[in-house]
Amino acid sequence: MSHAVPSRAPANKWVIASTVLLGSFVSVMDVSIVNVATPQMLGTFGVSLDEITWVSVAYSIAEILLVTLAAWGSARLGRKRFYMLSFGLFTGATVLCG
Questions:
Q1: pTM, 2 dp
Q2: I want to staple 82 with a disulfide (CB 3.0 to 4.6 A). Which of 11, 45, 77, 98 is the partner?
Q3: Are 65 and 73 a contacting pair, CB within 8 Å?
Q4: 57-79 exposure pattern, b = at least 16 Cβ within 10 A, e = fewer
Q5: What's the rounded Cα separation, in Å, for the pair 63 and 31?
Q6: How many CA atoms within 13 Å lie on the side-chain side of 63?
Q7: From residue 50, how far is each of 25, 37, 55, 67 by CA, in Å?
């Protein structure tokens, strides 16, 4: 009778977990920033609440499209390369917005 050898988790499981956690945190933080900035955008642009709501709607639509395309990009480039490219683009765009 042979004994089953339990499979070991990869040594870098904490690196993978922290990477996923960081990406999730940045995504949630970005949605919060859009929602918190809405009153300031109302005053700055001098528009009504109905008009400025389109900013949140456009952001949500863009996020949904990019999440949908993530599987395709991951298959084309590889998970690690796609994640690093996405994170780099997001960071660069955030710096430009700041």
A1: 0.61
A2: 77
A3: no
A4: eeeeeeeeeeeeeeeebeeeeee
A5: 10
A6: 13
A7: 28, 15, 10, 26
Cα–Cα dist 36/81, whole Å: 32
Rounded distance between C-alpha atoms, residue 95 and residue 98, angstroms = 5
What tokens were used for 57?
Answer: 């709607």
The C-alpha angle 33, 36, 37, rounded to 5 degrees, equals 80
Question: How many residues make up the chain in this entry?
Answer: 98
Cα separation, 34 vs 62, whole angstroms: 13
Residue whose C-alpha is closest to residue 70's, from 36, 27, 16, 28? 27
Helices marked H in the chain — which ranges? 13-45, 49-77, 79-97
Contact 83, 23 (CB under 8 A): yes
Q: What is the token pair recorded at 24?
A: 């999730």
